[in-house]
Recover the amino acids of this structure.
């Protein structure tokens, strides 16, 4: 089994009295990752694998308010489900389909250089946040304070994963 794991979901809360969990899917393929019979591993709220490497098997999942309601083997009541709140769900890297030619994993953004489309250096991505509004990257600007940039079509002009450069064209004042 791979020693590297990717976060694929976050437990938001228990749902009902039968041990089901409301999951925020953090993957482009939630139907495949949370399909009946698939396994995921329990992680801490920070995305680290738990010490006892709890493996969970999906019994069933259904779409629910932008996320999923998932039933796992061994979580059979609300009391047990409540203990899983805010935990992350992880999958071994070797069980994830690699990104396509024009895609990359979100965690690959960390460490990439950020430049304006004019070529002016902006800084380096130090953190990625997945917010309800979308993905936001934190860019450290030399010795100054970091800035937050939306990672969307309005700000990001292109991403060169080979050169590890993100070209941005932010609205005026966003980098000030």
């Amino acid at each position: 089994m791979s020693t590297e794991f990717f976060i694929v979901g976050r437990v938001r809360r228990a749902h009902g009295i039968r041990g089901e969990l409301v999951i925020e899917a953090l993957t482009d393929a939630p139907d495949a990752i949370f399909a009946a019979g698939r396994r995921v591993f329990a992680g801490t709220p920070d995305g680290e694998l738990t010490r006892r490497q709890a493996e969970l098997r999906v019994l069933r999942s259904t779409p629910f308010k932008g996320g999923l309601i998932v039933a796992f083997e061994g979580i059979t009541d609300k009391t047990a489900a409540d203990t899983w709140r805010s935990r992350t769900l992880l999958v071994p890297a070797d069980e994830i389909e690699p990104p396509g030619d024009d895609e990359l994993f979100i965690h690959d953004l960390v460490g990439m250089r950020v430049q304006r489309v004019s070529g002016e250096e902006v800084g380096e991505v130090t953190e990625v946040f997945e917010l309800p509004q979308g993905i936001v990257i934190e860019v450290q600007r030399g010795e100054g304070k970091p800035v937050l940039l939306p990672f969307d079509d309005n700000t990001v002009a292109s991403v060169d994963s080979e050169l590890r450069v993100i070209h941005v064209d932010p609205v005026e004042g966003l980098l000030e």
User: Anything to note?
Assistant: Residues 78-82 form the longest helix (5 residues).
